[in-house]
């Protein structure tokens, strides 16, 4: 595993949403109410982009079929049809002035 820098801390702000592709990983970095989250960037149900989701509190609602996930744990909260697995989440790593991930 090694550190991959995603962005400079100075660029992050509430409402920040940015997608990254690193090797086979497709990730989205979000900041909401001062909290930062790193998740897989496609819905585990049918692969819709998470970047288009509505987020209320810590509940993310996929724009395609409305499945809901907790953005902190990735856990599936509600499904409108057959349940799917939760979203993969990744711990954020802070290194000097940068934020990143170990992959
Ligand atoms: S693709 Fe996200 S809920 Fe179906």
How would you summarize what this structure contains?
By secondary structure, this protein is mostly beta strands. The chain has no helices and ten strands. The protein is globular.
Overview of this protein structure:
With 103 residues, this protein is mostly beta strands. The protein has a single domain, classed as Rieske [2Fe-2S] iron-sulphur domain (Rieske Iron-sulfur Protein, 3-layer Sandwich). It is 0% helix and 45% strand. The protein is built from no helices and ten strands. It has strands at residues 3-8, 17-22, 25-32, 35-40, 54-56, 59-61, 68-70, 76-78, 93-95, 98-102. The protein has a four-stranded antiparallel beta sheet, with no helix packed on it. It has a three-stranded antiparallel beta sheet with strand order 1-10-9, with no helix packed on it. A hairpin with a 5-residue loop joins strand 7 and strand 8 (76-78). The radius of gyration is 13 Å and the shape is globular. The model has no long low-confidence stretch (mean pLDDT 97). The structure holds FE2/S2 (inorganic) cluster. The site of FE2/S2 (inorganic) cluster has 8 residues, from loops.
Annotated CATH homologous superfamily: Rieske [2Fe-2S] iron-sulphur domain
H and E order: EEEEEEEEEE
What's the story with the biggest beta sheet?
Answer: 4 strands, antiparallel
- Structural shape: globular
Radius of gyration: 13 Å
Terminal CA distance:
5 Å
Helix content: under 10%
Strand content: 35-45%
Q: Strand sequence of the main sheet, in spatial order?
A: 5-6-7-8
> In CATH terms, what is the architecture?
3-layer Sandwich
Mean pLDDT: 97
CATH T-level topology: Rieske Iron-sulfur Protein
Q: Which molecules are bound besides the chains?
A: FE2/S2 (inorganic) cluster
Structural class, please?
Answer: mainly beta
Instruction: Specify the number of helices.
Output: 0
DSSP, total strands: 10
Work out the count of structural domains: 1
CATH hierarchy, class: Mainly Beta
- The parts where pLDDT drops under 50 for at least 5 residues are none
Oligomer: single chain
């Amino acid at each position: 595993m090694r550190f991959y820098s995603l962005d400079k801390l100075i660029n992050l702000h509430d409402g920040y949403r940015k997608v990254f592709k690193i090797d086979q990983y497709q990730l989205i970095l979000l900041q909401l109410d001062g909290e930062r989250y790193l998740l897989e960037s496609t819905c585990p149900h049918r692969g819709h982009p998470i970047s288009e989701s509505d987020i209320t509190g810590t509940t993310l609602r996929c724009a395609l079929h409305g499945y809901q996930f907790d953005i902190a744990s990735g856990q599936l909260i509600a499904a409108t049809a057959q349940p799917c697995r939760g979203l993969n989440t990744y711990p954020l790593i802070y290194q000097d002035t940068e934020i990143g991930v170990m992959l």
